[in-house]
C-alpha cells in the first residue's frame, strides 16, 4: 500500500529525488547534499525505468507459463472486481495507520520491527524468484532430496492440514543464498540488497496475482489513481510515511554513483506499487493478446508504461515536487491499448474477454480462500488436488498425516 506512489521523496534541487529515508545516506538531510549532475540523474532514472520493466515483463511471462504448465504447482490467483474496488480503501487505511504509528511511536522501534518482517518476506520472495534460474546451474547428478513440512490440527478423520510445505535440496540452496542477501540488507540497508528484495517482491506480485479481465483492471487502476493523487497532493501522509519507512518497498538508484561508487547516498526512487499495479494490467493485455495470436496489446501496454513513467520523471524534474506516478501511468496504460482496440474495432470484445476462462482455466480466485496455509506452491497444489482428485486425497490423508 505504501509503495503505490513513485518519487515520493523528490528533493527540490536539480530534479533530484533524494532518498532521505533509505540507504546509507538516510541520516544526512537532502538540503545538505550537492546537486546531482545531469549524467548522474540520467543514469539513475534510466536504471529505475529498466528495473521497473524487468519484473513486469518476466512476471507476466512466468505467470502465463506457470499457469499453462500441467506440472506446475504454482497457480496465480485472480483479482476480482470486488477485490479491485476495495483495494484502494484497504491501502488508504494501511497508509493512514502507518502514518499515525510513526507520529505516535518511536520511528526506530517501528522500523526495527518492519525490518525483521521484510527480512523474512524478502528471503522467501527472492528464493522463489531465483529458483528457476538456479535450477540451470545444478549438475544432473546433484543429490536432490524431497522434504515436506506438515503441521496438522485435530485427530482421526477430523484432522486438518494447517501447514503443508513441500521443498527439496535445491530450494534449500536458493534459500541459503537469499538469506545472505537478507543478512546484508538487515545489517547494512545497502541499496543493492534493497533492490534485490524490491525486484523479487515486484516479480512475485505480478506473477502470482493477475487480473481476470480488462474491466477489473480499469476498476483497480481507476481507484488507485484517485488514491495516489489524494495522498500525494491532498496531504503529506504519503511523503511522510515514505521518508520514515525503512523497508524494501521501493527501488532506489544513486544519482551520485559516478562520484561515490557503491557508497553513494543521493537516491532516486520508485515505489513498488507503481510497478506491480501496472504489471497486473499488462498481464491482462498479455493474456488477451495470446487469444488474438499476437502480442500487440501487451507491447502497447509496455510502451505506455515507459511513456507514463518517463512523463512522471519529466514533470518531477520540471516542478521540483513529489509526483504521484499513477497520475500519469494510469491514463497511459489504459489509454494506449484502448486506442489500439478502437482502431481495430475490438473494444467490445476486449471488455468482454475473460482471461481465466481460456489462458488460466484452473486459476483459484481470491474470493475463495483456501483452508490450507503455507507457501504459494503448496497452497495452489492442495487446491488443485481438491478440485481434480477429491476421493484420492481423502484416502491418502490419514497415511500422510
TrEMBL record:
It is a multi-pass membrane protein. The chain crosses the membrane at residues 42-64, 84-102, 108-126, 211-233, 297-319, 325-343. It is found in: Endoplasmic reticulum membrane; Membrane. InterPro entries: Peptidase_A22B_SPP (IPR007369), Preselin/SPP (IPR006639). GO terms for biological process: membrane protein proteolysis; signal peptide processing. Belongs to the peptidase A22B family. Signal peptide: none annotated. The keyword Hydrolase applies. Pfam families: Peptidase_A22B. Keywords: Endoplasmic reticulum, Hydrolase, Membrane, Transmembrane, Transmembrane helix. It comes from Rostratula benghalensis (greater painted-snipe). GO terms for cellular component: cytoplasmic side of endoplasmic reticulum membrane; lumenal side of endoplasmic reticulum membrane. It comes from the Eukaryota. This is HM13 protein. GO terms for molecular function: aspartic endopeptidase activity, intramembrane cleaving.
Amino acid at each position: 500500500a505504501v509503495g503505490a506512489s513513485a518519487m515520493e521523496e523528490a528533493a527540490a534541487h536539480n530534479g533530484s529525488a533524494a532518498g532521505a529515508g533509505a540507504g546509507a545516506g538516510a541520516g544526512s538531510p537532502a538540503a545538505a547534499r550537492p546537486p546531482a549532475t545531469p549524467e548522474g540523474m540520467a543514469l539513475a532514472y534510466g536504471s529505475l525505468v529498466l528495473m521497473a520493466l524487468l519484473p513486469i515483463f518476466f512476471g507476466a511471462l512466468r505467470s502465463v507459463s506457470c499457469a499453462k504448465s500441467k506440472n506446475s504447482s504454482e497457480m496465480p490467483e485472480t483479482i476480482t472486481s470486488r477485490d479491485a474496488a476495495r483495494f484502494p480503501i484497504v491501502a488508504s487505511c494501511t497508509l493512514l495507520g502507518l502514518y499515525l504509528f510513526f507520529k505516535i511511536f518511536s520511528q526506530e522501534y517501528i522500523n526495527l520491527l518492519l525490518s525483521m518482517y521484510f527480512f523474512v518476506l524478502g528471503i522467501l520472495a527472492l528464493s522463489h524468484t531465483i529458483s528457476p534460474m538456479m535450477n540451470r546451474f545444478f549438475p544432473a547428478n546433484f543429490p536432490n532430496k524431497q522434504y515436506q513440512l506438515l503441521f496438522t490440527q485435530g485427530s482421526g478423520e477430523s484432522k486438518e492440514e494447517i501447514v503443508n510445505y513441500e521443498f527439496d535440496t535445491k530450494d534449500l540452496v536458493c534459500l541459503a543464498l537469499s538469506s545472505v542477501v537478507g543478512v546484508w540488507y538487515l545489517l547494512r540497508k545497502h541499496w543493492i540488497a534493497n533492490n534485490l528484495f524490491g525486484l523479487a517482491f515486484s516479480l512475485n506480485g505480478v506473477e502470482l496475482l493477475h487480473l481476470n479481465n480488462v474491466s477489473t483492471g480499469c476498476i483497480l487502476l481507476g481507484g488507485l489513481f484517485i488514491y495516489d493523487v489524494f495522498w500525494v497532493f491532498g496531504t503529506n501522509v504519503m511523503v511522510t510515511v515514505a521518508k520514515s519507512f525503512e523497508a524494501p518497498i521501493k527501488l532506489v538508484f544513486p544519482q551520485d554513483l559516478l562520484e561515490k561508487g557503491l557508497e553513494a547516498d543521493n537516491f532516486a526512487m520508485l515505489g513498488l506499487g507503481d510497478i506491480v499495479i501496472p504489471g497486473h494490467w499488462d498481464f491482462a493485455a498479455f493474456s488477451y493478446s495470446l487469444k488474438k495470436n499476437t502480442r500487440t496489446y501487451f507491447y502497447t501496454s509496455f510502451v505506455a508504461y515507459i511513456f507514463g513513467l518517463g512523463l512522471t520523471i519529466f514533470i518531477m524534474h520540471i516542478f521540483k515536487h513529489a509526483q504521484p506516478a499513477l497520475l500519469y501511468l494510469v491514463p497511459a496504460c489504459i489509454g494506449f491499448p484502448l486506442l489500439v482496440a478502437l482502431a481495430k474495432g475490438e473494444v467490445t470484445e476486449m471488455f468482454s474477454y475473460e482471461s481465466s476462462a481460456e489462458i488460466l482455466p484452473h486459476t483459484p480466485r481470491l474470493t475463495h480462500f483456501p483452508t490450507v496455509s503455507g507457501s504459494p506452491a503448496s497452497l495452489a497444489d492442495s487446491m488443485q488436488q481438491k478440485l481434480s482428485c477429491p476421493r484420492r486425497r481423502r484416502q491418502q490423508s490419514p497415511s500422510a498425516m
